[in-house]
Specification:
Elements (H helix, E strand, L loop, with lengths): L5 H6 L1 E4 L5 H10 L6 E5 H17 L4 E7 L3 H13 L4 E5 L4 H14 L7 E5 L7 H8 L5 H14 L4 E3 L5 H8 L4 E4 L18 H7 L3 E4 L1 H4 L4 H14 L2
Parallel strand pairs: 1-2, 1-8, 2-3, 3-4, 4-5, 5-6, 6-7, 7-8
Helix pairs in contact: 4-5, 7-8
Bound molecules: the ligand O=c1ccn([C@@H]2O[C@H](COP(=O)(O)O)[C@@H](O)[C@H]2O)c(=O)[nH]1.
Length: 244
């Protein structure tokens, strides 16, 4: 495996700003100031702080993944995607379970918002990393293995013209084999050794996820709930730099 520089390792980490308001998010951003990682804004912060906060982060030079996981009828997702693309975010997502027509509508919405040269990366959520094999089969009612479902959704997303998927790091090798190495994988469910699992079930350490070939790893609580978030992020970056 080719060794990563510190900047390359940092650029693979998407810090999940799961906070109730802009002030709390700003506090974390202050603590990790100068580390060139990606920032993920999800539902909690977006619904509280709104599109203006996202635009503000963009104007300050952050790379933003807007994680709103749209899942609705195609026409509504087309409109939502168009509004999100107009915000200038670097990446956003939809649920693959919405189907191919819905994902194609998301891509149409993106093209309505502007030039294809600087459009956001559009990815699809496959199976949430909190979902276990048992829950997928017995509660949600999808038969077969989680990996088969993830691959089915990844293929559908690719056919619809999307750029990649959200999945567990343990599914990255199979996704790349099915959809090609340039099809992007964005993987939450990252837990440094010894960290609390919280509600995640399909997890890997940062080093293991890197070895699987993940493009980006989404990490929230192991950083944001740490006594020293900057130190927690630095030690994840160090794990990626030194991983063989
Ligand atoms: O399948 C998914 C899709 C999205 N997420 C999001 O990633 C972060 C993970 O946070 P942790 O605190 O590291 O568990 C969070 O914002 C989720 O909404 C996911 O976990 N799994």
């Amino acid at each position: 495996m080719v060794a990563l520089t510190r900047a390359e390792a940092a650029a693979k980490v998407m810090v999940a700003l799961d906070y109730p308001n802009a002030a709390a998010a700003e506090q974390l951003l202050e603590q990790i100031n100068g580390i060139p990682c990606y920032i993920k804004v999800g539902m909690q912060l977006y619904y509280a702080a709104g599109p203006g906060f996202v635009e503000k982060l963009k104007s300050r030079g952050f790379h933003i993944f807007l994680d709103l996981k749209m899942h609705d009828i195609p026409n509504t997702v087309k409109g939502g995607a168009s509004s999100i693309a107009a915000l200038g975010v670097d990446m956003f997502n939809v649920h693959a379970a919405g189907g191919k027509a819905m994902m194609e509508a998301a891509m149409e919405g993106v093209s309505l918002a502007g030039s294809s040269d600087n459009r956001p990366t559009v990815i699809a959520v496959t199976q949430l990393t909190s979902t276990s094999q048992l829950v997928m089969n017995e509660e949600i009612g999808i038969p077969g293995t989680v990996e088969d479902t993830v691959i089915h959704y990844a293929r559908l997303a690719k056919q619809a013209g999307l750029d990649g998927v959200v999945a567990s790091p343990s599914e990255v090798v199979a996704i790349k084999a099915a959809c090609g190495s340039s099809f992007q994988t964005v993987t939450p469910g990252i837990r440094p050794a010894g960290a609390a699992l919280n509600d995640q079930t399909r997890i890997m350490t940062p080093g293991e996820a890197l070895r699987q070939g993940t493009d980006f790893m989404v990490i929230g609580r192991p950083i944001t709930s740490a006594p020293d978030p900057r130190q927690a992020l630095e030690s994840i970056i160090e794990e990626l730099v030194s991983h063989e």
